[in-house]
Amino acid sequence: GCIPSKALISASKLVAQLKDAARMGIHVDGVRLDLGQMMGWKQSVVEKLTGGVGHLVKGNGGRVVSGDARFVGPHVLAVTEADGGVTTIRFEHAVIATGSTPAALPGFAFDGKSVMSSTEALDIGWLPDRLVVIGGGYIGMELGGVYQRLGTAVTVVEYMDRILPGFAQDLVRPVAKRFREHGGTVLTAMKALSWEAAEGGGVKVLVESLATGEKRTLEADAILLTTGRKPRTEGLGLAAVGLSTDARGFLEVDGEQRTSVPHILAIGDVAGEPMLAHKASKEGEVAAEVIAGHAAAYDVRAVPAVVFTDPEIAVVGMTAAEAEAAGHTAKTGKFAFAANGRALSLNDADGFVRVTIDAETKVMLGMEVVGPEASNLIAEVALAIELGATAEDIGLT
Predict the structure, then answer these.
(1) How would DSSP label each residue in 157-200?
(2) Average pLDDT for residues 99-109, to the nearest whole number?
(3) 75 and 159 belong to one structural domain
């Protein structure tokens, strides 16, 4: 869902910018949303990229076999193709990169219409007037933001005491503020209990406050369930090669991405959290180098994590607390976008940048950003961390 979600995020942000352009003296009348055309454009982006990957594989001498694969021996795969034929592939090394699928919640089985998964929400043929998003993590907030910008009234129900619980609270605050300013509702410390079809169409969602036990009913046209994802390992025949998963179904890997069977490696969502594209790409590079006989190991320090909310959040490296725990004497610097000329000229000045360095060596240890173009800004410090650059190196460029 990485590419289709980013395509829809970009399209929906353009809609929001057009609506907000009046602040700059630009009055745009008659903006019309063609959801079918938008979804078609999104799909064309996906097909162009996936097709490009296939061409790269073939162009480098690789072979592409489409179908359902399963291990039938320590060095043998059987691939059942669409026509029912089975292709046997023998290998020295294998990389499992099967990804993940949306995880359902008890009482909230996916049906593609009343209760949607993130996958289904990315290919919807209609736009609900009201949407309840169960799960205020990065998937819920990204997709909830898409629907909100397209005109849907969105209510987010989060079990934890705040949305985006994996990020520092001051990073999340501008996101929650803007979401509410644009008409969104956020209900935290709230448990979704059940749902039922409403008379005349739509759904009723029963939720309960974890603080008071009070129950209330939310009415909407549909539910988007984004409470988590599970690794895709069903049907792979892991037992045939002696592979097992952890309690949550993930394949455990070492620093070289090797599983408990050394000639079989795993990368991406199936190899554990965080389930992020940047992490999967880095793991893929490590796995390729290891198979080629080179020394390589996964190091998370220079791998960014990005949330494409409004405004965006991006982090890389260590926070001050993490740096102190690792033995550094940490020093932080913070600058608000409200005092940044470029942010002001973009009409988007919420948020800040915070950097963490080693107080003695001045080496860059990490950066946290919430604000415009955070997903692009984070790349400079990711490179600095990889190269061992100092704060002065960054300041002089």
Answers:
(1) E-SSSSSSTTS-HHHHHHHHHHHHHTT-EEE-SEEEEEEEEPTT
(2) 93
(3) no
